[in-house]
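Supplementary Note 2. Why include the ligand at all?

Several targets in our set were suspected to adopt different conformations when bound, so apo predictions alone were not considered sufficient. For every target with a known small-molecule partner we therefore ran a joint prediction. The input for shikimate-3-phosphate is given below.
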Amino acid sequence: MNRLDWSSESGSPLHGSVQIPGDKSISHRALMLAAIAEGESRIHGFLEGEDTRATAAVLARLGVHIEAPAAGDRVVQGVGLHGLRGSADPLDCGNAGTGMRLLTGLLAGQEFDSRLIGDASLSQRPMRRVTDPLALMGARIDTRDGLPPLQVHGGRRLHGIRYELPVASAQVKSALLLAGLYAAGETEIIEPHPTRDYTERMLAAFGSPISFAPGRAKLAGGHALRATDVDVPADFSSAAFFMVAASIVQGSALRLPAVGLNPRRTGLLQALRLMGADITIAHERESGGEPVGDLLVRHAPLHGVELPEVLVPDMIDEFPALFIAAAMASGSTVIRGAGELRVKESDRIATMAAGLRALGVAIDETPDGAIIHGGRLGAGVVESHLDHRIAMSFAVAGLVADGPVRINDCRHVATSFPGFLELANGCGFVLQAVG
Ligand code: S3P
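The joint prediction is reproduced in C-alpha cell form.
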C-alpha cells in the first residue's frame, strides 16, 4: 500500500446532510452468521470497507459463495453450521481485530485447521483474551506470544463454559458465543459492563435459541441457523467525526441520517451533551432490529468535563474524536478507566496525546486516560500510526486549527470509512491528499 498523507484546514461552516456508511461491527457479524446459516441471506447497507471485505474474502476461502450485486449489497449462500471447508492458504484479516477475534471463535470448533494472519497493526494486538477462554472450551490455538498469527487446530470437541469476562469486550464475548454454537452444552458469558449486543441480537434473528440481557448471554450448541436478511444502519463510530466537527466549527448545522443508535454505542452523544453540544435526534425508529435516528448537530461552545467512567465502554471507539472536542472545549476534560484504548489499532492514549501536543495542546497522559487542557488548536504535523480513527480525528482538528494540520499516512481510513475524504469535503471540510 502506498503512503497517503492529508492536509486539513479551516473552511466554511459545515452544512448539509451526510450519508454515513454502514456499521462495521454489524457488517462483520452479518457475513459470518449468514455464512453458517442454512439458505440465502441478503445484507443491505453492508460496509464496503477493507476490514469487512477482508472478512468476506476469508469466508469465500472457506467455501462460502458471496455475491455483491451492488455496492453495499451482499448475497450470501449459507453453507450450514458444518459446511465450511478448510483453506490451505492463510486467512488474511487485514487490519480487523473484530474479523480476527470473531473468526477465531467460529473456526475453533471446525474439523479443519486454520491460520489467521493480519497486517502490521493487527499483528501487535493481544489475542490471549480470546484464545485463553476458547482453550477452556477445549480449543487449541497457537499464538506468537499472545499475538497473531493464530494457528487454530481443528477436530477439537468443544464444550460450553460459564465465563466472566475480565474486561468488557464485545469481540471476546462474540468469539465465545460463535464457538458456543459448536460446543456441547451451554455457553454463558457474563460481562463486567454491558457491551454492544449485535451478535446476540443477530443470532436471535437467525433463529438461535439464545437468551440475553444487558451484561449476559447464554446459548446451547448444536442448533442450526436459518438464513435471514440484514439491514445495516449507518455506523455511529463513523458519524462521530462529523458530530464533533459540526459541534466545534462555528455556524455549522449537519444532518446525519439513519445512524445506528444502539445504546451500547452512543456514549459519545451523552459525553458531548455533557460538554454543552447541541445534538438532537429526529425520526427515531427501528430498522433491522436496531434503533436508528437522524442526528442533527449544530455548533455550540463546549466546556470540559470529568467524563463519567460508566460511559467508557459505550464510546470505546469514539475517544480519538472526543480528544479533539476536549482540545477545543474551555477548561479541562478528565478521562479515566479507558486503559483499553492502549490496545486498539494503535495505543490511542499515546497517539492522541502525541498528536495534540504537536498541535500545541497541553495534555497529561495517565495509564488509563488523559487530562486534556482545552482552548485552542495550532497548526502542525501529526502521525496517524496506521490508525484510521486517529487520522480522521486530526482531519477534524484541522477545521479549527490556527493553520493547516498535516496528517501522515492516512491510508488505513479505508478500513472503516471508504469515501471519508469526499464526504467530508462535500459538507465543508478543506481536506486534501498531499505528499
Ligand atoms: C467491536 C468491539 C470493540 C470495538 C471494535 C469493534 C465489535 O472492541 O473497539 O472496534 O465489533 O465487537 P473490544 O471488544 O476489543 O472492546
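The radius of gyration is 21 Å. Residues 25, 98, 169-171, 174, 196, 316-317, 340 surround shikimate-3-phosphate (CB under 6 Å). Comparable summaries for the other entries are listed in the accompanying table.
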